[in-house]
Amino acid sequence: xxxxxxxxxxxxxxxxxxxxxxxxxxxxxxxxxxxxxxxxxxxxxxxxxxxxxxxxxxxxxxxxxxxxxxxxxxxxxxxxxxxxxxxxxxxxxxxxxxxxxxxxxxxxxxxxxxxxxxxxxxxxxxxxxxxxxxxxxxxxxxxxxxxxxxxxxxxxxxxxxxxxxxxxxxxxxxxxxxxxxxxxxxxxxxxxxxxxxxxxxxxxxxxxxxxxxxxxxxxxxxxxxxxxxxxxxxxxxxxxxxxxxxxxxxxxxxxxxxxxxxxxxxxxxxxxxxxxxxxxxxxxxxxxxxxxxxxxxxxxxxxxxxxxxxxxxxxxxxxxxxxxxxxxxxxxxxxxxxxxxxxxxxxxxxxxxxxxxxxxxxxxxxxxxxxxxxxxxxxxxxxxxxxxxxxxxxxxxxxxxxxxxxxxxxxxxxxxxxxxxxxxxxxxxxxxxxxxxxxxxxxxxxxxxxxxxxxxxxxxxxxxxxxxxxxxxxxxxxx
Length: 479
Prior knowledge:
This protein has about 475 residues and is of the alpha+beta class. Helices cover about 40% and strands about 20% of the residues. It folds into three domains: about 5-290, no CATH class; about 300-410, no CATH class; about 420-475, Arc Repressor Mutant, subunit A (Orthogonal Bundle), CATH 1.10.10. It has helices at about 55-65, 165-180, 220-240, 285-295, 300-310, 315-325, 325-335, 340-360, 370-380, 390-400, 405-410, 420-435, 435-440, 445-460, 465-475, and strands spanning about 5-15, 70, 75, 80, 90-95, 100, 105-110, 115-130, 130-135, 145, 150-160, 195-205, 215-220, 250-255, 260-265, 275, 285. Strands 1, 2, 6, 7, 8, 11, 12, 13, 14 and 15 form a ten-stranded mixed beta sheet that branches. A three-stranded antiparallel beta sheet has the order 5-4-16, with no helix packed on it. The longest helix is centred in the middle third of the chain and has 20 residues, at about 220-240. It is elongated. About 35% of the residues are buried.
């Protein structure tokens, strides 16, 4: 296996967050009754003429600028001809030789090593979506819902620069974050707002010639992309090792079986018989309009990672975890602005807060604890009012009651004990009750001290200041 390297390129289709479709005024709202959001234009009726959605064009330019693409001066649309039941016109309006964006790149950073790699972008072009075929619960055939037909998509195509399933995963996570920061898509994979096709081939290490590729279609989670690529790499290597040919084809991923299977032979571009869309004339995009859009670009994820590491002293790993989700990054920053210690806030959000959200199946957007209230809890720890152990008991109550940490501490009398005299009395009792641990500590077993501190915490119901308890024990034990 180590004699081979994978060569991977990804095609990501993101639904643009416009209120209407790409070439008509039909709603893009998800969840409507089947075929409710349709009209003669998106159903391909004779004589119906498409009109380009200006907001979709603006969003596609925003993405192009954020990815460092060259935004075209001259733009045209093409007909991509093929017949399939969910394509009512028997062709798709797309872009062939004059896409809105060319070139560009995404910088992928390994969270462990911090090493960066640039994945080049080939193009990012506009096209309309097809409808949706419904097979389940239908006897003797299929049904089709055309609500999705005509939905605006931006297809972002990478160069075959990706060299592992893990790198493909990081590329997708990074791209999704950029799209969310730009507010051009909700990237909801469950609703089909973000879909990925993966092209994969393998070759002997050191070779420059590309192997025969397979395309894996309709992967609707990043983990699924990673698993499908890993399976396909192993399948293709086994074929080559057994002197079998790898066939150029389109394959589908079966998540239950954990394997890909053939769907159809792969079409080449000429099979689609592209030609210019006669109902949409080519037009020029002014440089002044592009520059106006550039001025509206927000701080992007990579820039925010740099700022979090520099301004807040976070590790690159912690900064990446917080920044991947725009809402989470904003929550963290609001917490720091409310005077919480930056590193403590990072630790509490990534460990305790996210764990509680997961157990309750909540998103950070639905978090019942406001950032300023979490900051209040963290300040109580810093000030020595409560211990970290007590804080971990308070946070779930904040989730349930909606009360602030200060209110809960006051009501339950949970203020941390920092009276040296009182802690000394408790420490004396703990030492007398645990002679074996005292012996172990004096014999060089440092973990015995942790046990003794734990006993003090237990006797004081977690209220003792653990740092002070540790100092008093060390003094009494002559350390």
